[in-house]
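Sample A.
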Amino acid sequence: MNQQPLPNVLPNRAAQNLLRAVEQGQWIPVHMIPELARQMQPMLIPGAEDLQLLHLMLDLVQTTSTYMSYYLSNHAMFECPTFYSTSVYYIYKLALKRRQNPVYLDTLAVVVKRRLRDLFPHAAYLPNLPSLQQIIISNHFYEGGVQGIYGFQKERAWNRFEKVLGEAYSYIGTYHQCHGTTPNVDFLYQFAILYTKYNGGVGREQFHNAACNYLRTNLPQVGQEFFRQLSHGFQNTLTLQDMAVTFA
């Protein structure tokens, strides 16, 4: 896939500054992401991802870089989180459903890497992030339809569920400890959509209950309001048809 740069001209100076920050991998306040996405709408490449998908990508950049920064702060060796790959794949499938080309999605790994380098300019180690093509190949395996490996697909899908849930536990707990509040966990909702499509052995309600119960049990320091919102988020996400994806 040919990588194309993000547009560098926006209607006003504030939007230009925000876009420049994104291109350089700098921190964008969460409350400013919707405005940035809105300002970019007139300049989007024709046929590329729409405003809503761009918003999802900017959220994922923030979440991934924040998650990885906790490890880098402690000089720990680690790999790219599984939720990054599953969320990229979800956005990719949503783009295909809307007949949009994954232009900006193809540059996302570069944006995250720049953000980490900006945060930790002297870090001796920065993990590699998979390319969009690598993510597509890796995740396409779970879509089913191949005779003889269905049981293995289910087992691998369950392993991914456990990884993403473990990453959510680590991220929510560390974020709460550092900031006294809870983070955006849209990657959990996106994975829920994929996982129920993967037919990983659990239905929608089972996935929802398993995820919420695990996190509530293992994060007693987090207020119950967060888990009520999490439960509501799962219910909404799994019933919104415009956010659903279809598999070949």
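Sample B, a different protein:
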Amino acid sequence: MAIEDLILFKLEMNDTLNTKIIGQATNYCMDYSCILPNFRRKYSKFENNTFPININIRKCDESLYKFQFRDDNQFESCYIPHCQPSCNKGICISDNLCDCSNTYLTGKNCNEYLKLERNYTLDMSIKIISFLLVLISMISIVTLYIYKNNYIIKGAVIRLRDKNFGICISMNITRNLVKYFLFS
């Protein structure tokens, strides 16, 4: 290694009122490799702003890190994907990008439930049955109001001429069920 192979650089700004460098601004390149600091900011354009350097970025262990263009289309980077907020039960596949395919959730951060589809046949049948039950109840109420002076309704008794064993059992069960539901 010769001293000619060492390149030192420092990031400086002439306009200190409008710009500020945060982080490490001085670094070097040695043995055909450079460690570039993280000095990403918004800068004003200036003329003759390029200096050609051949840079070879080695591939990284892709089972742990992502190796792809991250900040711009000039440098590929090795990085661990970070998602903020977290991906809940999904997998963070890139910065702020979640894979929700193996979960029952969806959305950018795997935090939304899948929208269920309505079963219109079941909905319609429930509406029809409900309408019929309401209609039967209203007809029963109107009929009871019209025949309120009838002796059967006033006495609340149904007299049967021919009582057999089956009718007696069903009446007894019905009477007991009504008492159970009314007084429990």
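Observation for Sample B: The first helix runs from residue 120 to 146.
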